[in-house]
Amino acid sequence: MPAKGVLVLVQSTTGVAAVAWDVVVVGGGVIGTAAAWRVAQRGMSVLQLDPAPGSGASGVAAGMLAPVSELHHGEQALLQLSLDAAVRYPGYVADIAAASQLDPGYRDCGTLVVALGADDRARQADLRRTQQRLGLDVEALTGRECRRLEPLLDPAVSGGTLVRGDHQVDPRRLLTALRAAAGAAGVEVLAAHGEVEVLDGRVRGVRLADGGLVPSDWVVLATGAHAGSHAPVRPVAGQIARLRMPPGQHVLQRTVRGVVHDRDVYLVPRRDGELVVGATTEERGFDAVTTAGGVYELLRDAQALLPAVGELEFVEVAARCRPGSPDNLPLIGEGDVAGLVLATGHGRNGVLLSGVTADAVAAVVSGAELSALVQPCRPDRFGPPRTAVAERREGAGAWT
Question: Which domain covers residue 121, as residue numbers?
Answer without folding.
Answer: 107-166+234-324
